[in-house]
Automatic annotation (TrEMBL):
Organism: Leuconostoc aquikimchii
Protein family per UniProt: Belongs to the UPF0473 family.
PANTHER family documented for this protein: UPF0473 PROTEIN CBO2561/CLC_2432, UPF0473 PROTEIN CBO2561_CLC_2432
Protein name from the UniProt record: UPF0473 protein AB3K24_03110
Coiled-coil ranges per UniProt: none
Length: 98
């Protein structure tokens, strides 16, 4: 989606109308589910800080971009397990954090 050195952000609005800026951790496509996924972390967190990573199904446009309206909650438990497995593989690879 983006150059590894280029940080992209997205703003999410919660049910109270509060806006939070997130950095896009990475995106990936699942052939098994025929969907694209996006994983987000709160903007400005330190590398060793524990955070809740947000994951969504997303429908990027032809440029690979998406807005909050393009994000869909993941509701299937098996689909969540697959996303967590991909995330854990990403987190275990030190090359992703250079």
């Amino acid at each position: 989606m983006a150059n590894q050195n280029e940080i992209q952000n997205i703003t999410l609005v919660d049910e109270n109308g509060d806006e939070t800026l997130y950095e896009i951790l990475f995106t990936f496509h699942s052939d098994e589910y025929s969907k694209d996924y996006i994983l987000l972390v709160p903007e400005g967190v330190e590398d060793d800080e524990e955070v809740d990573i947000q994951a969504y199904i997303f429908n990027p446009d032809e440029n690979g971009d998406a807005t909050e309206e393009d994000l869909i909650q993941i509701e299937d438990d098996k689909e969540w397990d697959m996303v967590e497995e991909v995330l854990n593989t990403f987190l275990d690879d030190d090359n992703n954090f250079e």
